Amino acid sequence: MAQQEGFSVLAVDAFADNDTQQSATLVYPWPGFCGPDVNNEMSGLLEVLDSFKPDAVLLGSGLEADQAAYVKLFTRHAVFGNTPETVAQVKNPQWLKNYCDAHGVQSPRIAMQKPLEGRWLHKQAGQCGGMHVQDWSPAATVTAKSYWQAFQPGQAVGILFVAHQQTFTLIGVHALKQRAGSYAYAGVKRLHDPGLTVAATALLQAVLPGLGLVGINSIDAIWHEGELHLIEVNPRLSASMRLYAELPLIKAHLDSCRGNMMPLQESMKTHASHCIVYARQEINASDLDFPDWLEDRPSVGMIAAGLPVCSLYAEGGSDREMLQALQDKKTRLEKLWGTYVCNRIEFNIH
After folding, report:
1. Model's pTM, two decimal places?
2. I need a labelling partner for 93 at 20 to 30 A (CA). Which of 14, 120, 124, 290 fits?
């Protein structure tokens, strides 16, 4: 996306897939995104950044769980994004719950000790992507970062926006897909519900003035019976930006971080969906051909069960047209790879 907007890019990525390699000047596969201790991997990352001498460092997911690592990066390079203090604040689940209560925003209860009754989700503070979220069972392993959030029924949605102090622009509202039987992120789909858009705007008006967010951020929420329940604030660039790639989002983010607000088209009329394709069982990517119309195409090697293989993207004039386009791509893959391989893959077309 940044390259499409005319920037020279050093991409720091966990997977360093083929798409990333083709769209960046340099790619650094960084183990810190996959390891248990990001802070211990920072020296290698900082050396690469020192050599590249970036004018701006933009952050997606992966660092908010390690505050010390975020501070190191922020103090050494020009990070265009939220301050470490802001990130630490909004990623503190109890602080965010108290803030929502004080500003009249619906949000599920938070517990910092094991709940004794009711339905709860067991989460890890600062983590992202949903893989850490589980239905609470007393038999589950509790860590120092464990907390519990009361289960809220409804549709999981994401709210993408660009913020600058007291003002914001709503970019879009989308459904958050989850893998079957889990809460792991499996893609996004644009939503065109006027009532939901009004509710999302009202939620942003209520919560943003006191958070101090800048640039592009997102909020995870649950849409239930005409009300939004705030689940989490993601103080960074979001994977859901893929749905709005035709907009100059990187420039809008940079402008906001510089203290300016760049006008953006607020409403996307077409229907669109981005689906993360996961391996149900281990597969060998070296044995497969990945056509250009796939996204996030892997480099050669084994892909373990539970990890992403690639992704599918499609648009259409209606939800039906968009879903049919995704199904057509799946059919083409079944012909290319065979049903044996495709039965070992989860496409998340829904």
Report:
1. 0.94
2. 14
